[in-house]
Design brief:
The structure holds two protein chains of two kinds. By secondary structure, chain A is mostly beta strands. Chain A is built from no helices and eleven strands. In chain A, strands 2, 4, 5, 6, 9, 10 and 11 form a seven-stranded mixed beta sheet that branches. In chain A, strands 1-3-8-7 form a four-stranded antiparallel beta sheet, with no helix packed on it. Chain A is globular, with a radius of gyration of 14 Å. Chain B is mostly beta strands. In chain B, about 0% of the residues lie in helices and about 55% in strands. In chain B, the strands form two sheets. In chain B, strands 2, 4, 5, 9, 10 and 11 form a six-stranded mixed beta sheet that branches. In chain B, strands 1-3-8-7-6 form a five-stranded antiparallel beta sheet, with no helix packed on it. Chain B is globular, with a radius of gyration of 13 Å. Chain B starts with a strand and ends with a strand. Classes of the chains: A mainly beta, B mainly beta. At the A-B interface, strand 9 and strand 10 of A face strand 4, strand 5, strand 9 and strand 10 of B.
């Protein structure tokens, strides 16, 4: 089945640091990938849609200058949390789906737990 | 924002019983419906999906879809303690790749 790899799985860093998270589709190409954030005991919240070769589409309330998304190839999207602060501590998850086939599910990466001290 | 509603629970069932999880959605144009299971601290994993009205069975799991009522459910037969997790309902928009998730229902299966 389709596999999405996310790296790193855990980041602990100081306030003000920028953190980059990678999301790769391992055995399929994805022109679109999705980034979610999940706070403890809450559901997944879609942050943005990453589009290969063009600008990402951000959901309402998500700061695009804070959360930089780059989708430079058909198998890689990156999310950079710039100048991270403690309130950015969360579980970040990416997803992608096999395109061109009807009713394909989203496949999720294993997530990145970000802790800002 | 499209709405996907789930009862947050927790839903407690004894081992061996049937667990019934429900989900309603607001967008009549929604195409496909997915159930994911999420263990604490882990990312969601797909259980099954359904896109036609009626029932779809996969092992101990049965998904039920009623598009007229904008309702989708998941039945888990012979519930096991290992089924204890949060179950997320997801709905895919018509003609778009976006998935919208419900807030999840926490299921506790008691031995």
């Amino acid at each position: 089945g389709a596999v999405v790899s996310q790296h790193p799985s855990r980041v602990i860093c100081k306030s003000g640091t920028s953190v980059k998270i990678e999301c790769r589709s391992l055995d399929f190409q994805a022109t679109t990938m999705f980034w979610y954030r999940q706070f403890p005991k809450q559901s997944l919240m879609l942050m943005a849609t990453s589009n290969e070769g063009s600008k990402a589409t951000y959901e309402q309330g998500v700061e695009k200058d804070k959360f930089l998304i780059n989708h430079a190839s058909l198998t890689l999207s990156t999310l950079t949390v710039t100048s991270a602060h403690p309130e950015d501590s969360s579980f970040y998850i990416c997803s992608a789906r096999v395109e061109g086939v009807t009713n394909q599910p989203q496949h999720f990466g294993d997530g990145t737990r970000l802790s800002i001290l | 924002q499209k709405e996907v509603e789930q009862n947050s629970g927790p839903l407690s069932v004894p081992e061996g019983a049937i667990a019934s999880l429900n989900c309603t959605y607001s967008d009549r144009g929604s195409q496909s419906f997915f159930w994911y299971r999420q263990y604490s601290g882990k990312s969601p994993e797909l259980i099954m999906f359904i896109y036609s009205n009626g029932d779809k069975e996969d092992g101990r799991f049965t998904a039920q879809l009623n598009k007229a009522s904008q309702y989708v459910s998941l039945l888990i037969r012979d519930s096991q303690p290992s089924d204890s997790a949060t179950y997320l309902c997801a709905v895919r928009e018509y003609n778009f790749n976006k998935f919208y998730f419900g807030s999840g229902t926490k299921l506790n299966v008691k031995p």
